[in-house]
Every structure is written in C-alpha cells, then in structure tokens.
C-alpha cells in the first residue's frame, strides 16, 4: 500500500487546453492523471452524435488528446482516469486501443458503463427544477445517472492503464484512486469527505492555478499564457498538498483555493455527491510554500440513497442576430434599432431579448456607471420551435443594414439547436455499473 | 467612508441550473467581520435587484474566512436554455463587487 500518491488534473472541461496535461504527464511525476471533460450538456450532445453513428458519441477531442498523451503515460507509468467516454465509453475505449496500435503501444483500457439510464425512465418522473414530469420539458434525448467512486474501483483493481467513463460525479474521479490506493472504506465519511474536498478543488484544473481569477493590478497572475494545471499529493491520513509543475505559469494561493472551494457550491455544509454528503465548513487551508497549499479538515455524512440523473431534452431553437454602431449617438442608434426589431418581430415571438453589448448586456444593469460608450453592439435573441422560425431573428437584424438607423455594421446571424437539461433522482439500487476491458 | 466591495474582497460566480452562487472573500481576514455585518441577505438582495428574483441564502465560513451567497432564480432560466449573453452568469461576481459598504479603515 502506498504512503502517498500524486494526482494531476489536466483538463477541467471538454474544450480545455491540451498543453497543461502534456506537461503534467511529462514532468509532474504523477501516479494518476485525471481529465474532467463532461459538462451537464456535453453528454446530451454526445448522445445525439451516437444516434447518428453508433461508433461515435465520445468526446470530440479524444483522438487528439490520446495521440499526444498515450506515449507519455506509458513512458512514465501514469494511470489515466477520464470521463471522455461521454455517451459511448465502449467506442471511446476501442478508439484509444486503435490509436495505441498506431503508436505501437501496449495499452489496456477499462470502460465503465451503466450511467446511461434512459431506458429506465418513463418520462413521468418529476423534474427537480420544474416540479413537473420530465416529458413536459420536451422530447428526452439522454438520461445519465451520476456514478460514484464505487463504479470506478473494479476498473482500478484491474491492470488497466486507462479508465474511461461516461457520467461520473466530478470529485469521484479523484476519490476513486485515493480509495483504491489507500484502501479506505467507502463508508469512512471523514476520509471520503476530505477526498471529495480534494476532488472538488482539482476538478476545474486551471481554476485552482489562477484561471478564472486574474484581475490586472488587483489579482495579478504571472506567466498567464503558460498557465499550468494543478497536481495534489495526498497522504494516507487524508492530508493534501496542492501544487503545480515548476516553470509553468499561474499561481496556487489561499485566494485561488478559496475561490475554487466555494465554486458552484449550493450549501458548504452539505455538498452532495454519490460518495458522501461532504462538509466544507471545517476545511483549513495553509500556504506552505510559494505555489503550494495544504488542505485538511474535509468531513462528511453518509452518502445519499438516491443518485442524481441529468436529463437532456430537445428545447427547440434560439435565433440570434448582432449589429454594431459606433461614434456619436451610438447607444441611441443601437436602441432605436433594438426597439425597431422588437416591433418587427413581436408578432412572431413571445420572448425577445435585446442586449446592448458594451453597456448592459451581461449584468443587465450598470450599477451607476454611465460613460457614453464609443461603440455598442446590438444583440437580439429569441426562442423558436423550428430552425426556420429561429432564422427570422438574424434575418431581421441583417435587414437593419438598409432598413435601420444610420451606420449599422458587422451584422452576424446564428441559429442554435438547443438541448435543455433538467434533473431527477433515482434510487441507487436501480443503477448497475459494469466494466469492460479492451487491449491494444 | 464608502468603499466598493471590489476594493477589499474578491469573488467567484458559479451556477447550478437557474441558481447563481457568489463567494465573497476578504483580501485580509480582518475585513471578514465588516463583511458579515454589512453584506447581508437584505443588502445583497437590494443591490442585485435587477438580477436575482428569487431567494438569497448567505453562508458564513469563518474557517476561510469567506461569505457565500446562493441566489435562486438569477440566470433567466439557466445555462442551457437562457436567452442571456452570459448564460452561466460567470460575470456576475463583479456585479456583487460593485456594491458599496461603509468601512472605517
């Protein structure tokens, strides 16, 4: 049994940068590398790709990431844990083996399945968000239960170099290798609570090292362009020290860790995962060296009896159009354009959103700042049931060229096929996970 | 002296569905009691009146120290179907930091 293990996080979302994972694998002296690549909606979009082609439905960047990473993780004997399987972990495992064969590498991949529970749902289950049955939201596309660390442990017990999953709670990707390495009991709420704190701090990768943090002059981050991703050393008693590879950009400090500890937390004393209900209120952070912090004190209560299920549904379309105004009276011309569009579209759409980019578009207000903007971009968005109807929004904005205020330029139009997400709960006894092994 | 929260604290926004979370972390621990006394549920509700239409819950974390605000019905329906520009509300940490409080420092 190991005394200490080191886990790196090389991706915090599906579109994350590739380079930090390569640096971690090359120079991080890791035991495990985690790539967290599955946002709420990512899996529903992947399910749509799988329906069109049964060999697809895994992460779109899988091939690119694996081509670069496989030689490094084999050379340095690192086990890779990732949810890049998305809607199709089996096809992802087969794809990884194909890439390994091209690279003349021996690789064993364990695919974890069982999160896809769409066949188990009738659609009459209640949505947590709306309180109404799921099918009232729209046609269901996907339903994936959040698996926990227990689903990954059988895969870790094999000789697999890579464990690839679909939907797994993000912290569980880190809890599993800790439990596997130290032989902790899944019922040890103190250890699993601390492991969940560790996973939560790590899961967004660069958000611990200065990403989503920097504010010039106030919160400066050195060598931002080369922002490194974090690794964590964990000891058998649960003590964790977070750091990053020497020579990479970014910062790990009490301030970055505090921001990440509370990120997306709905109740710091009860953070629900499939493994535990974690409690962050006793967490203690200490800066031990430059770019190094120690974290202790995560606790927890017994895991919930139900698993959260993320349900994707067809939510129609959004049509969008944009056009810019600049110079004298720019805001007033943009506002004339916005009100004109509202009148022209009002008979076709019930909910039209008009934004003035450069003024009030993201905060929906401006808290007393009213400098006259030199330039303003008008943005119009509306929901539609068909793509043809959605297209009307951008077409009407584009028509401002010849039917709108003076000096409108740079019109753009977009149509988005919208996948909505709601969630429900399912008794954990109804969800059975399975592992399958593949070899290159 | 009136001071913007921006001058003494930092914040990160997060989202879950239609709920916005906002941490509020003092640069210096000694500012924490000032934040506790002045950045209340009522004052945040008033400040974010144009953004948050639902309930606001405040959590106190003296162990960090930090405050944490959980704001319901704040994201125009939530990231997946909202018509907003910033569907996640990621920029809204800086909306909270625009709030002014009375500080004697």
From TrEMBL, chain A:
Span of domain Acyclic terpene utilisation N-terminal: 5-436
One Pfam family here: AtuA
Protein known as: DUF1446 domain-containing protein
Alphabetized InterPro entries for the sequence: AtuA_N
Automatic annotation (TrEMBL), chain B:
Origin: domain of life: Bacteria
Every AtuA-like ferredoxin-fold domain range: 4-102
Protein name in the entry: AtuA-like ferredoxin-fold domain-containing protein
